[in-house]
Each structure stands twice: as C-alpha cells, then as structure tokens.
Design brief:
Blueprint (H helix, E strand, L loop, with lengths): L2 E7 L3 H18 L1 E3 L8 E6 L4 H20 L4 E5 H7 L2 H5 L5 E3 L7 H11 L3 E3 L20 E5 L1 E2 L10 H5 L3 E2 L2 H14 L3 E5 L9 E2 L2 E2 L2 H9 L6 E5 L8 H9 L6 E3 L7 H6 L6 H14 L4 E3 L1 E4 L6 H14 L5 E4 L17 H24 L5 E9 L6 E5 L5 E5 L9 E9 L3 E6 L2
Parallel strand pairs: 1-2, 1-3, 3-4, 4-5, 5-6, 7-10, 10-13, 14-15, 16-17, 20-22
Antiparallel strand pairs: 8-9, 11-12, 18-19, 18-21, 19-20, 21-22
The structure holds S-adenosyl-L-homocysteine and FE3-S4 cluster (F3S).
S-adenosyl-L-homocysteine binds next to β16.
Length: 441
C-alpha cells in the first residue's frame, strides 16, 4: 500500500538537495508518495536550519502545528532532520514529545529503517551520527529530468568561521569521489537535465579522488562539461580563501561554467574579518575578484554579509559599504549577526545595539538593491541565451529562464517544449531582481 509523505524544508540549497534525496529513498524503499497536504500524510518530515536563531525558532512553531494534526491522526509520524536536529538531538523529543524520529544531515539514508523501527517498537528513534559519506552508498540516483539539478560534491565544513554553526551541525569536510559524482551527473543528463549546480558549504576545498588520486573542483568542472547535454555548470558556496588559480583558469577553458559566482565576503573590515576567522583580508579579496574578471570580464559576483558582528564600529561598517561599491555586487544576502551555540563569536560581547544593527542592514540592503537594479537595467536591449526552467510561478502564461549571469527572465509563451532548452530572449524590461523579454526569432 502506498503511504503519503510530506516534507517541509528550511534553509539552504544543501537542505533542498537532502530533502529531494529523502523522498527518492522513501519512494524506492517504502513505497511512499508525496501527499498534497500535511493532513493527508502518514509521515511528516521537517528538514531544519540552525544558521540563525530565527531559523531555529521556526522549528518548534512548526512542530506545534503538526502536533495538532497528530492528535487527530495518532498513526502519523513526525521526523525532524537537518541542522537543528544535529545540534539538539534527543532534546527535541524532550521539548516536543510529538516527535518520533530525529536524524542528522549525514544519517538521512537511515530514514526507512528509523521509520520502520518506530512503527514496530513504538520507541522513539534518534540518530545524528556522522558516518563519513556512507549515505551516498544508499541513496538512489533517479533524475526526474528537471532542467537544473543540484549535486552534492562535498559535505561539512572545517573552516570554523567564529560565527558559524555549520562545522558542528554538518561535521567535517568529506569529498565524494569524482567517479561517483560524474556517475550521478550522467544519470541526470540522460534524463534531460541541462544545468548542474555543484553543492557544498565550501566547494573550492573539494578534494575528491579521481583514479584514487586527490583532485580538484577545477578538474571536476572540466569533466562535468564533457558530459553530453550538460550546457551549464554552477557551484555554491566558494570560500575566498581557497579560490585556487586552477579554478580561475577554468573560467577561460570551460564556457559551460556560468558568468556568476557567489563569493561571500561577510565584512569589508580587515579587523572584523580577523575576528570572524575568515582567513583573508580585503586586499586579497579584491585581488581575487580582479583576477577572475581578467579572465571573464562580464563576471557578476554575489555575496553574503553579516552586519552588527561583535565590536563592529561605524568605520568597520563603512568598510563593508566601500567593498560593496568597489566590487558592485549583484543580488546578495545580508543578515544581522545572531549568536549561535558553541561558536567562538558567541563568547564575544554582542555589543552593537539592535537599532544600529537594523539601520546598518537597511543602508546596506538599499545599496545592494540599487546595484542589482542597475545590473538588470544594463541588460535591456541585449539578447540573452537562457536556460528555460519552467512556467513562471506568478503567471502561468509566461515561461521562466535564467541568463548566464544568473538573472531570472520571464517571457510570454505557452510552449512547454521550450522547458529544458537553451533559448535566445530579447530583453525589453528590467525589474530589480528579474528581467522581462520576448522570444528572439
Ligand atoms: N559556507 C558558506 C556559508 C554558509 S552559511 C560560506 O562559506 O560562506 C550562509 C550565510 O549565513 C553565511 O555566509 C553568513 O553570511 C550567514 N551566517 C552564518 N552564521 C551566521 C550568524 N551566526 N549570524 C548571522 N548570519 C550568519
Ligand atoms: Fe560556516 Fe565559514 Fe564554513 S561560514 S559553512 S564555517 S566557511
């Protein structure tokens, strides 16, 4: 008998990838199919994020709502995965007894066993261990023919930036082998995927083996481009400290690699960067941007920013604004600093007051939006080769694609056969975060 599954995903692209894998696994092993709504499900999974306090608070609110569904349907099981699960473990069940299963980012392959064990014994199941890469030996590679697909290449992070919980929740860096990754990509390409988005917390420290020898992200990108039907390659996230020369050179060699990179700078003050343990200074960061632009002049850069880090002065913040103006970042993410458990920054006094933090965030976001809009406006009148992703979510009479510089483009068309194709679009209108255009004949 088929059972129904509902997965809710918080947080990063890595979590989205993991959630898709949970579904593939439970479909294959336990005959689950996706439920249309939460109250029709036999199993509810919440894939959580703990990067900031707000994200973590959302978890217990969600469990509270699901508890009410469970009161009406006692057979329903609730499973909590992801980074809050990894951080809190059994404490989640203590605080929220409606939860049946707690699993971590590296034990999601055990979900079918944990689910069966709970059903057979009625004992709660908790497994948040870090068995190295074991999960990839158990996860099916299906490929559903989506135009763009994520592929995890490195799990965990060793950087221990002073503000960040990820090394604690996702464990230390472990790279998959190049053969294993290329195998997954070939299956996806055969099913119709045209764009591969290589994923990891710190992809440029990728050290996956090829023929038993340690290799690099640059090599992996070159080999990915050789796979038939792969037209575009992206990767996220890269750390400025480990952006090696062979990766810069690959922008020259591999036209399939997109002209956009997410290269989080976090702050424009060398003093704050040191306190953050980011391992680069602003000169080094700007030099890297210049080197990449020398090879690909049309390159666009996006970043993450943290404002109000402990001890951040007005001058430090001005440094961040200066670096924004210098690089002219495109669409970026910015956050107010949030102290996280067991991080070294959480021992530093969180001394920038809330009002000041909000004001800095507002100034920074206003400038980023201006730059992003300017970037969009420059595209008006050009023709952009776009990969078509599918119907626009807001207007089903339109299709949506992405330019090589990462801009969403909407255009009128009902021709669903264009999905998954590379198509030329004439751009005739700019909005701050997207473009509008017409099919170019
Ligand atoms: N691996 C990525 C970052 C993952 S976390 C990298 O190397 O940059 C995504 C972003 O969340 C970070 O870049 C940072 O800007 C933000 N972030 C992480 N911890 C935070 C904290 N404690 N408070 C506020 N923002 C944080
Ligand atoms: Fe976090 Fe720094 Fe790693 S931001 S994910 S510790 S590179």
């Amino acid at each position: 008998m088929t059972k129904k599954l509902f997965i809710k995903t918080h947080g990063c692209q890595m979590n989205e990838y993991d959630s898709a894998k949970m579904f593939d696994l439970l479909e294959e092993k336990e005959n689950f199919e996706l439920a249309e709504s939460e109250d029709q499900a036999d199993l509810l999974i919440l894939n959580t994020c703990s990067i900031r306090e707000k994200a973590q608070e959302k978890v217990f609110h969600q469990i509270g709502r699901w508890r009410k569904i469970k009161e009406k349907n006692p057979k329903l099981k609730i499973a909590i995965g992801g980074c809050v699960a990894s951080q809190e473990g059994e404490k989640i069940i203590k605080r929220a007894p409606a939860v049946d299963i707690v699993f971590g980012p590296q034990t999601l392959h055990k979900l079918p066993d944990l689910y069966n064990e709970k059903n057979n014994t009625n004992l709660n199941q908790v497994d948040i261990s870090f068995p190295k890469l074991e999960k990839f030996n158990h996860l099916p590679v299906h490929g559903k023919g989506e135009p763009s697909a994520f592929v995890s290449i490195i799990e965990g992070c060793n950087k221990y930036c002073s503000f960040c919980v990820v090394p604690k929740t996702r464990g230390h860096e472990v790279s998959r082998s190049i053969e294993d990754i290329l195998n997954e990509i070939s299956v996806l390409a055969d099913k119709g995927t045209r764009e591969i988005h290589l994923l990891g917390q710190n992809v440029n420290n990728f050290k996956g083996t090829l023929g038993g020898e340690k290799s690099s992200l640059a090599k992996l990108i070159e080999l990915t481009a050789k796979i038939e039907n792969i037209e575009r390659i992206r990767y996220t996230t890269s750390h400025p400290h480990e952006f090696k020369d062979d990766l810069v050179e690959v922008y020259d060699k591999v036209p399939e690699l997109v002209s956009h990179v997410h290269l989080p700078v976090q702050s424009g003050s060398d003093r704050i960067l040191k306190l953050m343990r980011r391992r680069y200074n602003i000169d080094k960061y700007l030099h890297l941007v210049e080197k990449i632009r020398d090879v690909r002049p049309e390159m666009s850069f996006s970043s993450d920013f943290i404002v109000g880090f402990p001890g951040e002065t007005k001058e430090d913040f001005q440094g961040t604004m200066d670096v924004i103006n210098e690089v002219k970042f495109d669409e970026s993410f910015s956050f107010i600093y949030s102290p996280r458990p067991n991080t070294t920054a959480s021992d530093m006094p969180d001394d920038v007051n809330d009002e000041e933090k909000k004001e800095r965030l507002n100034i920074l976001q206003t400038r980023l939006n201006q730059l992003s809009f300017g970037f969009s406006r420059k595209k008006v009148g050009t023709t952009q080769n776009c990969l078509i992703y599918g119907p626009s979510k807001r207007d089903p009479g339109q299709l949506q694609g992405r330019t090589i510089c990462n801009r969403i483009v909407n255009f009128k068309s009902n021709d669903i056969d264009l999905v998954g194709q590379m198509v030329n679009i004439q751009i005739n209108e700019a909005l701050p975060n997207c473009l509008r255009g017409n099919l170019h004949n």
